[in-house]
Amino acid sequence: MAITAQDVNKLRTMTGAGMMDCKKALTEANGDFEAAIDILRKAGQKVAAKRADNEVSEGIVLIQVSEDGTNAKLLALACETEPVSKVDGFRKMAQDVLNAAVSSNAADKESLLSTNLADGNSVHENLVEMMGKIGEKLEIVGYENMSAERMVSYVHSNGKLGVLLALDGLEGADVADLGKDVAMQIAAMKPVAVDKDDVDSRTVEREIEIGKEQARAEGKPEEMLEKIALGKLNRFYKDFTLLNQDFVKDPSKNIRTLLSEKSKGLTVKAFRRISIGA
Predict the structure, then answer these.
(1) DSSP state of 54
(2) Whether residues 31 and 74 fall in one domain
């Protein structure tokens, strides 16, 4: 049957796919719109399979904090190229997925991928469908659902780096400005844990071995290597655990001191730092 321009435009409105893709799908489906939509979805599956190993180094990080400030959702949706990351359709998809995370209170990435969007299809199905439209791999490279007495968020100006900071022990203190400062510290200084005891054992073992090798390369006596390595480990804790880092805005105090000055019981429950392409 003849496929009219009106038919193509109708399918394009329904799916958001390109004009030529819509015309091809309608032709293959003999004008059956439902069949054409299935064809477009299968095209997305083919793109997803073909580009599965491609690197995704562009995208957008979005965060939504609940009205009472006690819960926050962070979503990092990645694509292959910068132009796609700036397309309205891509950004709308990211916002739709974040909205679905908020409404469903998805606990983790797997739960989020199975959550349905407004069209009745899952997040995963919608991502695959969009891959068919744009011809690039799309991937949720980060998702966090966190709660605390006060959740603080920060998204860097490039839109590709986001931080969630969970604070407890406020005791009535206004932590808006302080929270932002600490969140920006996390973004800039890349701590690996809140405090010394939170660093995983493999990282500790690796740092001790690196310290020993460095000392050995400097010609230090074998019996001194352990002591020297432990000294280097303490330096690692100071540089890479949040509470022990010097405050960037005032290096005369560390983050632990900064928090205690605001409120004696104020503490960092947890934090998450997610960066696309880094």
Answers:
(1) -
(2) no
Q: Are 69 and 165 in contact (CB under 8 A)?
A: no
Nearest to 208 by CA among 236, 189, 245, 244: 236
- C-beta separation of 255 from 167 below 8 A: no
Tokens 């010609």 locate to 219
Q: What are the mean pLDDT values of the chain's consecutive 10-residue runs (278 residues total)?
A: 79 71 81 80 63 84 98 97 93 96 96 93 88 86 98 97 97 95 97 96 94 91 91 95 97 97 95 93
Most distant CA atoms of the chain, gap in Å: 86
The SS3 call for residue 175 is coil
Residues 6+ apart with CB under 8 A from 191: 240, 241, 242, 245, 271, 273
- Which residues are within 8 A (CB) of 102 and not within 5 positions of it... i.e. 6 or more apart? 64, 73
Which of 138, 141, 239 lies closest to 191 in space, CA to CA?
Answer: 239
Domain with 11, as residue range(s), is 5-50
CATH number of the domain that residue 139 is part of: 3.30.479.20
Contact by Cβ (8 Å): 232, 207: yes
- Please name the residue ranges forming H helices in the chain: 5-15, 19-28, 33-50, 82-85, 88-104, 109-113, 123-134, 176-189, 201-217, 225-240, 255-262
